[in-house]
Each structure stands twice: as structure tokens, then as C-alpha cells.
Please model this.
Amino acid sequence: MSQTKFHVKKGDLVEVITGAHKGSQGTVMQVLPKKAHVLIEGVRMIKKATKPTQDRPQGGILEREGPLHISNVKLVDKKK
Model:
């Protein structure tokens, strides 16, 4: 079983080069290798409805980062 090597990793500063969020910069929070996606801090914020749980008895709407395909980002600065 071979692993795919990507040009970015967690902690790198990247810039979005295509799509609706073109020009946005942020640090990589997580790389999802099975789908070739990345989560970038502060980019592509989506709203997710949640059901009530013990932690959140009211439920509600959470705002979090959505995934972007790894080919749509370029490396700006490596992890320090």
C-alpha cells in the first residue's frame, strides 16, 4: 500500500489559487489524504446545524472551516 505525498502539510501557510476563495491565505489545520482535501484556518467558513446533545442542550448552528481540494492551494511559507 503506497501513500500519496502532498506539497503541503499541517502548519504550512498556503494561499487559495482558484475558486470562490481565491487570494485567501491561512495555515493548514488538517490534511485529509483519502479525499486529497485540506482544512485551512479562516477560509471557506460553512454553517453546520447540530442537534441538541448533552454538551449543547439547545443545539444550534456551528460555523467551521470546510474542506478545499489540495490542488487549489499553493504553498506560501513552510512551517517554522
